[in-house]
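Quarterly update from the structural biology core.
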Amino acid sequence: MIDIGTLLSRHARYRPDHLALVVGENRLSFAQFNSRVNRLANALIAAGLSKGDKVATVLPNCVELMTVYWAGAKTGIVVVPASTLLKDSGLATLLQDSDTNLVIADQSFSGVLDSIRGDLPSILSDRYVLTGPTGTKDSGFRSYDEFTGKATEEEPPDAGIVASDVYNIMYSSGTTGAPKGIVHTHFVRAMYCALFASAWRMTPESVVLHAGAIVFNGAMLDLMPWMFVGGTYILHREFDAGAVIRDIKKEKVTHIVMVPSQIVAVLNHTDFNPAAMESLEMIQNVGAPLHIEHKRRLNELLPGRFYELYGLTEGFVTVLDKHDAIRKVGSVGVPPPFFEMRILDEDGRECLPGQVGEICGRGPILSPGYYKRPDLTAKTVVDGWLHTGDVGYVDEDGYLFLVDRMKDMIISGGVNVYPKDIEEIVIQHPAVREVAVFGAQSDKWGETPVAAVILTEGASISERDLVQWANDRVDAKFQRISGVVILDAFPCNVAGKILKRELREKYRQRQTAGDAMTE
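Predicted structure, tokenized:
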């Protein structure tokens, strides 16, 4: 039997007083958290939901969101996490596409939900639940406390969950195109539990801190193994570098997962002190490759802790272990046990070491497909192999080096230009804190590379000077950047991924206005 809903019940029985979850002032033992989860699970059943029905959340990081995750695990009710950054039409599309039966949302979304109710006939009027005090009869919504108030804290009835039952549907974070619902089963999440607990060397004594949004799949990399081993999970409501540093010291945190911008923010914070972070056993980068300049600094200041994961929500990953972080700088690691990887050329032939091609993989966390989209599934998973759309190569030892995403590749004068190669040059300038390179339209070349940068605090450099500095150092003429945009912050999605399409549009607008500096 593979049923991840049994994990919490097990910990509540055998180690009930162990600190399970910390969210703000809430410090819940496994017994206390299990009672909350059972109450919600029984309330969902009382509302008429059963295995296979869909509950969507529109919640920030909070106890209620964690409770929904594990109530779904116990009942077989499918969890559909939605980003709090979604607008009216985007949220309506997600709720329609996922066949959502009930919504649990933050009170701040009452107006949005009220405006789209007419487009959601499958959701009954009493199945809109709001956290916080706003959910009253006068508002037309039910409050979370009212919804769960009469439910028992006893274990819910056995839902007869089997490994192939769907646990959740993760909608793509939307860096390009329309969002797609990626299905994960209890088996897939059980593999997350066991495989990543092993990869991260987690134990029941581990203390995990997560400061990014847990509605995106990268959060499952520590959330699932935490529940598997029965450690402690500290969830921040939002990312704040100073709060991360303080809690690592206060709570003796052992494991943390962050996206590159968060790692950079921690390293550059005035309170950063390696001695205060000595409890850490893992600092994992996810979401996008961390630039080598930042990796070097991290490995110097906090040696023996850096892991990097490359992967897709659809279900393939490679892991760079902390013991390989120095030996294989620039690599994103190797496939974990039970995974396989191929690098294929345009004709579908396997590439030799050092030869660039599309990264393809398979393994036990492979999604059964996109929700209600067998056409997209068939294009992405061919003969059991996930085609990632990312470009890379392996070295003689089989370690993967990510070159770039196919969709981010710039074609300039008929030559393939990979933004990551240019980013690794620009980031070396002492005034540059973060960089993202994208392609801008060019009448002469089709596209030319442009660098968007965030400067280090107190630094100053002109866009023209930075263009000249970078172009003096790139390896080839076609890598020369035609412009620079200096920004205070990059546009990102909820997963922390930089939205290059928005950078491209900002630059286009500047060109149209005649403000952009071009060479």
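The first strand starts at residue 19 and ends at 23.
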